[in-house]
From TrEMBL:
Signal peptide: 1-19
Keywords: Signal
Gene3D superfamilies, per database record: Immunoglobulins (2.60.40.10), Ribonucleoside hydrolase-like (3.90.245.10)
Lineage: Eukaryota, Fungi, Dikarya, Ascomycota, Pezizomycotina
GO molecular function, one term: hydrolase activity, hydrolyzing N-glycosyl compounds
Domain called Cellulose-binding Sde182 nucleoside hydrolase-like: residue spans: 43-303
Signal found in the keyword field: yes
Organism, as annotated: Fusarium zealandicum
Pfam families to which the protein is assigned, alphabetical: Sde0182_C (PF21027), Sde182_NH-like (PF07632)
The protein, known as: Cellulose-binding protein
Location of the Cellulose-binding Sde182 C-terminal domain: 387-498
Keyword Signal recorded: yes
Length: 526
């Protein structure tokens, strides 16, 4: 078997799997796996009221499986209205110690430049916030967690994502301290770096923060205090009656998640399942979301400004069309529609923890549309009524490197990403999707895919026709969903978002370039 030059040079580096374990005729190069450069990883600081009930522990376990995609700057144990007088950093340490036992296996399944941090490095990031409830912390000495948070804000001009799973009084302490000790310009510069994703308001400092500093970017379900039944994040385990709850049930979790040393720290559910997890699912760079634009939708839900120009983003709604008929419109649907996808993804990663053999696990495909691999969206300017050809033939399957014949391809429009029009107006904003390859398929317009979108089209190549609406500029969001079904029980998906901006002011290439000779585009093979 001929080795590539890259493989020959780097075969001894961690994360690269020897070809001796590869299927016949296949060779694996870990440098072709998905790679997020360090400067594109979101900087993350987690605040968790761990041990108030099991779901925070569950979320920490899942978070550890994705830490190679984040630049974790801190994990802080906090209080909340459900855990008012103590914090439990020791429980975080327990989970991270288990992670340390499996990190070598995890690193066999990812790009050599996207390795997981050691258990020791992750342990060094754990701190604790004030051990009192809410605003009482504002009269307490500055906590270790608040000091750490301030230092992480100051160390870089890049945004810092503060994920609030409990009460935010550690953040409140930090803000109060900076307000008192820094100049207004210095404090404003640090506030501009903050990105908050809170799992509802869980103490009385949350509203205080938003009132005093409305310029802070803040994603949160806003509702009556502790009335969590109406929150978007409940879509983790409920929200769409027609959507199966099988993958949040004890039996499924025991079979696929509670395995190996790390899985053994995943506790059984008492109320819900991983209610805090949407905060970092929102940040997973799978090609679907845009962390600086909550309105486009992601595994962590879809969010709208609570007022014109507001930096606070609250719940929005999606319509989920059940594959068997019927539909459900709710805020929870913005998260719940992806449940099968993100549960499978976690299960696939948990399998990595128990096997150092790359070929004994499933890995996410790497979508490619018109030569662009993302995870940032592909942006194309069009004129009203224009047709655009999209080609995903160069998509890469790490589990079958020779070709991508084992992958499945679906295209659909995420209409609510681009428009906030009423339901009666949405039909006029619907693009037309047509398969353009022999084995492609355009199902019936009333048929929905597994994420609840309709219509959708199957195949590597499609033609998109945008509506002929010349009176304004519109943005149409087309999603390519690529599925790796190596494991029939746990298909893993990745996406590529294509943003078509239609305006009469744009130039139609079919009109301006009639005399140009365009070279033929051929399918890519490996």
């Amino acid at each position: 078997m001929r080795l590539s030059l890259t493989f020959g040079l780097f075969c001894c580096l961690p994360g690269l799997v020897s070809t001796q374990d590869a299927p016949p005729g296949q060779e694996h190069d870990a440098y072709k796996l998905a790679y997020v450069p360090d400067n594109q990883k979101p900087r993350v600081f987690v605040l968790t009221d761990i041990l108030n009930e099991p779901d925070d522990q569950q979320s920490v376990v899942r978070y550890m499986l994705y830490t190679n995609e984040f630049n974790t700057r801190g994990i802080c144990a906090t209080t909340s209205t459900h855990l008012r007088n103590d914090t439990h950093p020791e429980r975080i340490e327990h989970i991270v110690e288990a992670y340390g036992k499996v990190v070598d296996n995890l690193n066999k399944h990812v790009h050599p430049w996207n390795q997981y941090a050691s258990g020791e490095d992750m342990l060094s990031l754990i701190t604790t916030g004030p051990s009192v409830y809410g605003r009482l912390a504002l009269s307490e000495p500055l906590s270790e967690g608040a000091k750490h948070l301030i230092s992480r804000l100051q160390e870089s001009t890049e945004p810092l994502w503060v994920l609030i799973w409990g009460g935010p009084n550690t953040l409140a302490q930090a803000l109060q301290h900076m307000d008192r000790t820094l100049s207004e310009s210095e404090f404003a510069a640090l506030r501009a770096r903050l990105r908050i994703y809170a799992i509802s308001d869980q103490d009385d400092t949350a509203e205080w923060i938003r009132y005093n500093w409305p310029d802070i970017f803040y994603i949160v379900s806003i509702h009556g205090f502790t009335n969590y039944a109406v929150a978007t994040w409940r879509g983790m385990w409920e929200g769409i009656p027609s959507l199966s709850l099988h993958k949040v049930a004890h039996e499924w979790l025991a079979k696929y998640i509670e395995i190996g040393p790390l899985g053994a720290t995943y506790p059984r559910r008492e109320i819900g399942v991983e209610g805090d997890t949407p905060s970092f699912l929102y940040l997973v760079q799978n090609g679907l979301g845009d962390r600086e634009d909550p309105m486009v939708g992601s595994w962590g839900g879809r969010w709208l400004p609570i007022n014109v120009g507001s930096r606070v983003f609250g719940d929005s709604i999606d319509t989920y069309y059940a594959p068997g008929g019927g539909n459900e419109t709710s805020n929870k649907a913005t998260c719940a529609r992806w449940r099968d996808h993100f549960q499978n993804d976690m299960a696939a990663r948990m399998q990595w923890t128990v096997s150092e053999d790359f070929w004994n696990a499933t890995h996410p495909p790497i979508p490619n549309v018109n030569g662009t691999s993302g995870p940032s969206p592909l942006r194309i300017s069009v004129v009203p009524g224009q047709q655009v050809n999209l080609d995903a033939s160069a998509t890469y399957d790490p589990d079958q490197p020779a070709n991508n014949s084992a992958l499945s391809f679906e295209w659909f429009q995420y209409q609510q990403s681009g428009f906030q029009a009423g339901s009666n107006a949405r039909e006029q904003f619907q693009v037309k999707l047509e398969a353009t390859e022999e084995d492609g398929e355009t199902p019936d317009l009333q048929e929905a895919n597994d994420a609840g979108f309709r219509p959708f089209t199957k195949g590597r190549m499609v033609k998109v026709t945008v509506p002929d609406l010349p009176e304004a500029e519109y943005e149409y969001h087309i999603i390519l969903q690529v599925t790796n079904r190596k494991s029939p029980d746990l298909p893993v998906r990745r996406y590529m978002r294509v943003k078509l901006t239609a305006s009469s002011n744009n130039i139609n290439p079919d009109e301006c370039c009639r005399d140009m000779v365009i070279p033929e585009t051929k399918n890519v093979t490996w």
